[in-house]
Design a protein that fits this description.
With about 425 residues, the protein is of the alpha/beta class. The chain has helices at about 5-40, 95-100, 160-180, 225-240, 260-270, 305-315, 315-320, 340-360, 395-400, 405-425, and strands at about 45-55, 60-65, 70-75, 80-85, 110-120, 120-130, 130-140, 145-155, 200-210, 245-250, 275-280, 290-295, 370, 385-390. The protein folds into two domains: about 45-155, Immunoglobulin-like; about 160-180 and about 190-425, Zn-dependent exopeptidases (Aminopeptidase), CATH 3.40.630. It starts with 6 loop residues before the first helix and ends in a 12-residue tail after the last helix. GO terms for molecular function: N-acetylmuramoyl-L-alanine amidase activity.
Length: about 425
């Protein structure tokens, strides 16, 4: 049965109830105020820069910001488009420059449009030339970079790597036929000493280190490692393609970033016989100098310096930017089977042959092949070496690295080392492991 509430209870409780109601109203209006302010507060997230890296393999667009960006993306067909909505940024500033950074020669982006989709949200629309498989991800601050939102546009139907390799070989051979004789015919070149390769065609994958978002080491004159390695890599490819029964490919033929594991994948896709990664060393002091050659270690590094260098080179994925959703069987590899052990032994033989030739044009930092856990050398069935061409942190060697004549001599020395390796280790038909 309902009992009436005593009037004294109402008298005591009513002021408390009114006060609680006022507090609820204040909280509600405060929450509403927060909601109203949220877009303008998010707009305070500053975009520091925008960058576009077009290449045949893929195009990368990077938005660097002071705080992590809140975004969502989706694809639209007919015509092909990628839509990227970013919350809490201003349409002005660096975003105004983004459309102008897309050039007509971009393989994948036809046009890039930006506008306010709704208050507090900027919409970027990528009008595409061909169907793509986009990867959109964020990167935490590292090195000189702040927070990054990365858009990688990969072709839905990538080019056949073996066909591209054959076409490159044919172009280089045609260029040799049209080129005038060398103006230095009497200059002795040790690259002509070994006999030409016989037997089946040998394929060499050349890996110019770093690229794109990852400049690598930078010399005192501002020389970027990624540009030096690409120049030497291109020259090395040309020289190899001029050799009978030899052909070469590059993991990158332009200024773009290639993840470490992808460099290994590329070598295995073309059934490479050798993998040679080109770098330009750097150290804490400018006095360090000399060239070095490294192979993979199945135990520990052969020196503290080798271990330090491997750790630095393996950090390339953090700097260049890799989606952590991509499975990476090589970087995770910890157990070395008999195949890997045999490959390392062959890598040491190759490294010794190349090191001996490089010693004829530059001082050696160490007279033997060193070993460490370089991620880029982890192909289980391809002899792989990493050549540190010189110390870019040494002003004298930095000048050498930018000199075309030195680059040519260095490339010729590497070719000569490869040929000497095959003289003692003739190429035979190999049973390839399953490609991952």
């Amino acid at each position: 049965m309902f009992k009436p509430v005593p009037s004294r209870w109402l008298t005591e409780r009513l002021p408390q109830a009114r006060q609680a109601r006022r507090r609820l109203l204040q909280l509600g209006s405060g929450a509403a105020l927060l909601l109203a302010l949220r877009p303008s507060q998010a707009a305070a997230t500053a975009l520091l820069s925008v960058r576009v890296w077009p290449a045949g393999d893929y195009t990368r667009v990077t938005l660097e910001s002071s705080q992590p960006l809140d975004y969502k993306s989706f694809s639209v067909k007919d015509p092909e488009r990628l839509v990227l909505d970013i919350n809490g940024v201003d349409l002005g500033g660096p975003l105004q420059q983004l459309a102008g950074k897309v050039n007509d020669g971009d393989p994948y982006i036809k046009l890039l449009r930006a506008g306010n989709n709704k208050p507090g949200t900027v919409r970027l629309v990528f009008e595409l030339k061909v169907p793509v498989k986009p990867q959109v991800f964020t990167l935490a601050p590292v090195g000189e970079y702040g927070n990054r939102l990365v858009v990688d546009l990969y072709p839905e139907n990538p080019a056949d790597p073996l066909l591209a390799l054959l076409q490159e070989k044919q172009r280089d051979e045609a260029a040799v036929q049209q080129t005038k004789p060398d103006t230095r015919p009497n200059e002795p070149t040790r690259a002509d000493d070994p006999p030409p390769l016989k037997g089946r065609v040998v394929t060499v994958m050349i890996d110019p280190g770093h690229g794109g978002e990852d400049p690598g080491a930078i010399g005192s004159r501002g020389t970027q490692e990624k540009r030096v390695t690409l120049a030497i890599g291109r020259r090395l490819r040309q020289l190899i393609n001029e050799q009978p029964n030899m052909r070469a490919a590059l993991t990158r033929d332009d200024d773009f970033f290639v993840p470490l594991a992808e460099r290994v994948h590329k070598a295995r896709r073309i059934d490479a016989d050798l993998f040679i990664s080109i770098h330009a060393d750097a150290f804490l002091t400018p006095s360090a100098r000399g060239s070095s050659v490294f192979a993979l270690s199945d135990t520990s590094a052969t020196s503290t310096a080798a271990k330090w260098l491997a750790k630095k080179e393996n950090a390339a994925d953090l700097i260049g930017g890799v989606s952590m959703n991509v499975d990476d069987p090589y970087l995770k590899r910890t157990l070395f089977d008999l195949t890997q052990t045999a490959t390392i032994n062959d890598s040491l033989k190759l490294g010794k042959a190349v090191l001996g030739e490089i010693g004829g044009i530059n001082r050696l930092h160490k007279g033997s092949v060193e070993q460490a856990g370089f991620a880029v050398l982890k192909a289980p069935d391809i002899p792989s070496i990493l050549v540190e061409t010189a110390f870019i942190s040494n002003p004298e060697e930095e000048a050498k690295l930018t000199d075309e004549d030195y680059q040519d001599k260095l490339a010729r020395a590497i070719v000569n080392g490869i040929r000497r390796y095959f003289v003692k280790n003739p190429p035979t038909a190999r049973t390839k492991m399953a490609k991952l």
